Amino acid sequence: MDAQLVWNTWRRVLTDDRLVNWVLDSDSRTGDPHGCSADEVAILADYAATPVPTKANIGMYRRGLVRNALGSLDLVPLTRRLLHTSGLDIEAVATEFVQSNGYVDNGPYFWRAAGCFVAYLRERPEFSSQAHQDVLAIDAETVALARRLGEAAPTMWPNNAVTPFSAAATSRIDWETGRFFANPAATVVSSSCDLTPWIERPFDFDGDEDVEFSPRHWLIYAPAAEAAHEYAELSERTALAFKALQTPKSVTELSLELGNLPREEVLSVIGSLAELGVVVSESNLANSAIQGPRSHPENGLQPADKLYVVSQQTGGATSHGTA
Amino acid sequence: MSFPRLGVGLQFNPELIGWFPFLDQPFDVVELLFDSVMSPLDGSGVMSPRAVDLVRDIADKYPLLGHSNYGGDFGFGDLMGSAAVQRHVPLAKKFNVSWVANHCYYSDGSWSDVWSSPLQFSRVEAARVATRARALQEFYGVPLAHENAAYYRTCPGSDLLEEEFLARILEQSGTYLHLDLHNLYANAQNHSASGYSIQRFLGTIPLDRVITIHMAGGRWIGGQYHDLHDTQVAEAVWDLLDDVLSRARPGAVILEYETQSLYCDGELADTERTTDLILSDIERGRKAWDHAYGLTSRRTTRSEAA
Questions:
Q1: Which residues in chain A have Cβ-Cβ distances shorter than 8 Å to B39?
Q2: Residue B112, by phi and psi: left (phi above 0), alpha (psi -120 to 50) or beta?
Q3: In this predicted model, what pLDDT tens digit does every residue of A1-59 receive, in sequence order?
Q4: How much is the pLDDT for A172?
Q5: How far is the C-alpha of A187 from the C-alpha of B304, rounded, in Å?
Q6: Which of B176, B281, B285 is nearest to B241 (CA)?
Q7: b/e per residue A261-274 (b: at least 16 CB within 10 A)
Q8: CB nearest A317 (choices: B35, B67, B122)
Q9: Which of A30, A161, B145, B199 is exposed most, by the fewest CB atoms within 10 A?
Q10: What are the phi and psi torsion angles at B197 (to 5°)?
Q11: What ipTM did this prediction achieve?
């Protein structure tokens, strides 16, 4: 038997209840083996000849999926907390998710696994409240950001991008003609509710408590390649500026984009975002070799739109077994 | 390739983190599970943020060995895109591990199917796996050892004994063997009726290529013996250790536990008792090692003697 065909066939069994029945229930073998070739049927028959260990292996696989699905929520602690305070049987919810997801094994693609689980929970009626939908949308965006960064790392991570706005570096910025852009290590998502108390306490908030219906804008960013995601609340104006800077813009261009906002206020907005390294000047990117301690902007760049960093999230690998 | 003679240590298992006093013990070596500290394969970086701080203290205090459970090492996917190459190799270099061990299972960007998928023990697969093993060892730049599997059934199409299969791989790849004595014991419990023999296994593999030994325990559930790492090391496995240490010269003996509450005499022990049971096993492992190789043959006892 070709080993790769055996492997592929076994993986089909693990994810297909009809094939599970075929190998475990002799009564079901009278029917069509669901489009399998003769070689594949021979492999199925081999597994069917050892029903006890085959059943144990299938059970182990599916329990592993449930365990790893729950473990993947460590990457999105807001969603994790929402689920854990929902009053639902979380093992049952994860089992239903795994089944509805076709018993897919995402393995080391933890972010994809977390994203699939978050997407599943968004559709469940128990999480249909606006606040819960807001949380799940934030985490969906967190997952999307993490996966984008996995595909392509930014030229400068925010922790490194902060430095050029220090006193030593600001003189290098051409404020009149230089252009600024949003660091791809950050994104902005809006919520309908004020989730501040939940984002401040991602591990112990009560998902049943009332939160104020009040639109908010959240900056999500990864300070470094191996740093947990952080969150900051933005004013509406700063959020608009960040979105506008997805395309590099000069101070003048950004002013126009923000309805002819006065230059000093534009500088203030840029400075507040640059302080976190989530907005970068093109000239400082070119001088990215400059290194130094993090410091606040100076020379007229004191941020007027103060950003409130409300929480440091954790991220990590999923749980798993060893041998 | 050469490897150091380290001694007796413990696996840095996620289930033990937060309560087991790792840093208070005079371990000769600690085994790091790459999969539990690596960053997501679809994310940035090499280590997960949570692991960065956890591993730092351990790495500062003990020599580390690397272990891969889910690297896709021997799957059919592109080796360059595997977790083994993309995450485990950089971690091995970051922590300057003395050697790395991996598993003889299939996986391709997957985890939960690993334990149900032992490699097909066939000549064709031995040649294919040896090619990947040789390439991986070159990437690591340190010895790479393959762990014998515990399995509930063999892969369809197997036409070699497991020990013959492993011996072929080592012969063709120039890699090493990571001998899990509890996996041997578990297989003997589940497959002795179909001819499985530990003594034949040990008589067939090249014992001079054994670089590490794993010790663990497990339990019978539903008529099958399971490699659960949730008891003290099985008594028969200690006998196997004495036997192998008398015939081989491994660089380390690593004990594995995967729970905060070990089963002991059919009951669950609390955390304090579990800690004592683990420390008791480790001390027994040290005595076995010292009996075989001398009182100053471990890393810590060598330094004390010096």
A1: 226, 317
A2: alpha
A3: 999 999 999 999 999 999 999 999 988 787 677 788 999 999 999 999 999 999 999 99
A4: 55
A5: 55
A6: B285
A7: beeeebbbbbbbbb
A8: B35
A9: A30
A10: -140, 120
A11: 0.93
Q: Is A231 on the interface with B (CB under 8 A)?
A: no
Contact A159, A228 (CB under 8 A): no
Give the Cβ contact number of residue A159 at 10 Å: 17
Residue with tokens 């399998």: A36
Distance between first and last Cα of chain A: 27
For A116, A162, B271, the CA distances from B109, given in Å and listed in that order, are 16, 36, 35
A322 → closest Cβ in B33, B125, B155: B33
Question: Which tokens hold the place of B7?
Answer: 């001694």
Longest dimension (CA), chain A: 82
Mean pLDDT for the stretch of residues A84-92: 97
Contact between A7 and B76 using a beta-carbon 8 Å cutoff: yes
Pair B244, B229: CB distance under 8 Å: no
Backbone angle region of A107, left / alpha / beta, with phi > 0 → left and psi within -120 to 50 → alpha: left
Taking each helix axis from N to C end, the angle separating B181-191 and B235-245, rounded to the nearest 10 degrees, works out to 120
- Residue A122: exposure state from Cβ atoms within 10 A (0-12, 13-18, ≥19): middle
For residues B268 and B260, what is the distance between their CA atoms, to the nearest angstrom? Answer: 10
Residue in A closest to B118 by C-alpha: A7
Assess A319–B contact: CB distance below 8 Å, yes or no: yes
Q: What angle do CA A90, A94, A95 make, to 5 degrees?
A: 115
Q: Across residues A159-164, what is the average pLDDT? A: 75
Is A282 within 8 Å of A178 (Cβ atoms)? Answer: yes
**Cα distance from N-terminal residue to C-terminal residue, chain B:** 26
DSSP B148: P
Decide if A128 contacts A170 (C-beta within 8 A).
no
Residues of B in contact with A74 (CB under 8 A): 50
* Nearest-Cα residue of chain B relative to residue A312: B49
C-alpha to C-alpha distance for A130 and B83, rounded to whole angstroms: 38
A54, A316, A320 ranked by CB distance to B153: nearest: A54
Given B11, B52, B83, which is nearest A108 (Cβ)?
B83
d(CA A123, CA B210): 52
Instruction: Tell me the C-alpha distance between B91 and A71, whole Å.
Output: 22
Min Cα–Cα distance to chain A from B306, Å: 36
**A268 CB contacts (<8 Å, ≥6 apart)?**
A301, A302, A303, A304, A305
Decide if A319 and B14 are in contact by the 8 Å CB cutoff: yes
Cβ <8 Å between A153 and B116: no
* CB-CB contact of B18 with A283 (8 Å): no
Q: Please state the pTM of the whole predicted model.
A: 0.91
Report yes or no: A111 and A146 within 8 Å, Cβ to Cβ: yes
Q: How far apart are CA B41 and CA B48, in angstroms?
A: 10
A167-204 exposure pattern, b = at least 16 Cβ within 10 A, e = fewer: eebbeebebeeebbbbbbbbbbbebebbbbebbeebee
> B278 pLDDT exceeds 60?
yes
